[in-house]
Amino acid sequence: MYYIKDAKIRRFTELDGVRCAEVEVRPGAADDPELLVYITAKDQTDGQHDYDMVRIIRNDADLELDWYDNNLHSAFEEVTDKAFTDSTHITAEEEREKFKRELLSYGQLSTEFAKEFGV
Fold first, then answer.
1. Separation between Cα atoms, residue 62 and residue 11, nearest integer Å
2. What is the pLDDT of residue 69?
3. How many angstroms separate the Cα of 46 from the Cα of each of 54, 71, 87, 114?
4. Rounded distance, CA 79 to CA 6, Å?
5. What pLDDT is attached to residue 103?
6. What is the pTM of this model?
């Protein structure tokens, strides 16, 4: 499981024509990489609003060596489909949902999402 030390919205942008928030997530464990998580609003069938993680980018850049925050090199890797894996206690989908809930409940993120996405 990925533990969140800090998370903040870097910017609001569009991916594939969909408005989303780019959230920088700093890890709580020393060996975990930083993540850029792209979150968008989605409507559920019951009329309620929810959010979806549409893309996850792992940042393995070492800021002491690579001081320029440049996402055009290989230190940034898309891991949306492989970020979460099955374990003996939890499935990959359950782990993904748990991470999403923890991220949405971190600080004021859900309030900022609601204001930006109008939900």
1. 22
2. 54
3. 21, 38, 31, 18
4. 20
5. 92
6. 0.79
Tokens of residue 95, six digits: 């782990």
Q: How far apart are CA 116 and CA 15, in angstroms?
A: 16
**DSSP, residue by residue, 29-70:** STTSPEEEEEEEEEE-TTS-EEEEEEEEEEE---TTT--S--
Contacting residues for 76 by C-beta, under 8 A, at least 6 apart = 36, 57, 58, 59, 60, 61
pLDDT at 38 over 60: yes
| Residue 62 burial (CB count, 10 A) | 9
Question: What whole-number distance in Å separates Cα of residue 42 and Cα of residue 54?
Answer: 11
Give residue for tokens 């060596």.
Answer: 65
